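Known limitations

Structure tokens in this collection are predictions and should be treated as such. Users comparing against experimental data should check residue numbering before alignment. To illustrate the layout, the record for Metallophosphoesterase is reproduced below. The input appears on top and the generated tokens appear beneath it.
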Amino acid sequence: MASVGSTPLRARTSRLRRAVARVTALLTAPGPHPWRRAAGLVAVTLLGAWLGLLVVGNVRTPVGPVDTTMTLRPSLTGGTKVNVSPLGALELSSHAAPLRLDVDVDQLDQQRAAALVNHPERIEGLEEEISGDVRSGALDLGLRSTVAVLTGSCALALAVYRRPRTALAAGGLSLALLVASGATAAATWNPKSVLEPKFSGLLASAPQVVGTARSIATEFDVYQKELARLVTNVTKLYDATSTLPAYQPDPSTTRVLHVSDIHLNPAAWHIIRSLVEQYDIDVIIDSGDTMDHGTAAENGFLDPIPDLGAPYVWVRGNHDSATTQRAVGKLGGRDGARVHVLDEGKPVDVAGLRIAGWGDPQFTPDRSVVPEGDPAERAKGRKLAAALRAQRAARTPVDIAVGHNPQLAKETDGLVPLALAGHTHNRRTEMLPHGTRLMTQGSTGGSGLRAVEGAEPDKVQASVLYLDRDTDRLQAWDEITLGGLGLSKAEVSRHLPEDMEPGASPSTSPSGSPSPAGSPSPAGSPSPSPAGPSGTATRSSPATGR
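Generated tokens:
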């Protein structure tokens, strides 16, 4: 996460150029006015100091198991702000000075987190380690900021006045202001501010989730144990994905990764990226509920999507707002991005497949609206069905229909060979009465950030679907299950459609094309044995030593 705001560099440069031009015009105006010269020198000094801080006044430093960026910013109120994107921020009234300390939490360092897991005794020294990291980072930031302020003020004064003596005066003035600000901050330092933080964004609910800062301070032993368990669970999940069996793809198949209900769990992106690489995925289909509350503060969570390694097709869930949908759409507008939003039955062509869907008609986090339940889902499902009929009449039939709620997706029965859904956090596959296979995915986020709270977290689930490149018919699918955060194994089970099992006769798809029978496993390796009544086989990969 960047500590310099979101304004484009070109716009900031343009504003700075105009500001310098105005200051220069003011200082070179005719007439001897000492007060104008003094005010101008102060203005140039402050502007140069601010510019220096903006360009180089930050440091990247590790704090315990996370990487952070520390920055000093001009401020009328001072204090400290800790940004944890996309969850929000917390503000501390740590000091009163014209400088604010911004700390941006960038990412969890998996190697350092794993070291804590493998050596639990280090948790006891974590408080001291974090204090040392913060002191070291603050010292480095102070030195860098001093150089940045002096350099910026001197350089701008030299550019405006063209006199080295005046530039040195500006440098001296900026140094005096910085020393005065530091002294004020030290004099007003409030170490108890950590007990009364101000939360914003999704972190506003943090006191209810983890307890208040005051309770953490008074019961630190309990909090320490919870922190150890949290780090252990998250790190073991990351390790489990690396133990999944390798897969040799068959070039005659299109491989679809079906994910759903990530619910703001950042570990899901690591899992998806790992599966894309290991299974050589052609397209990812997300059947919704990527968010928890659908607020604009959550939108930064979506940033990894264009870099997952495969085209990403997304449909809105009941926890995804219109704001969320616009944010996903903007990702698709980036150069080279392959992100597609499904809604209102408009089809997209990706990886040789024609896919259509309809966003969930209900946004349940909005408490001002009474949910309409399944009737609203079925009504939109009928509209999606009408769009699918229109596509079939135009001789451009859709291969896969996607809806978040299974009730919506069921309305496409008989119009597509395959329908995908989520919502229930319970993986299930069923054949609908008119021949459409409905695959409902479990939660790829393990039910979201809540997955790291309980002693028995939900399982993390995703599926890899293998479709024939010529007919776009489903040949087989692998159900991938991680045994919840912190549990010990990753499991992959192979499933075959009933008409693909040995001895089965060809059946007719909803689109009217015959499905092949007795085709080989799409894995490019022997079919699972024994197949059994359900046509499944299971491979488990224990995360030993974790």
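For this record: The mean pLDDT is 75. The first strand starts at residue 58 and ends at 63. Please report discrepancies through the issue tracker.
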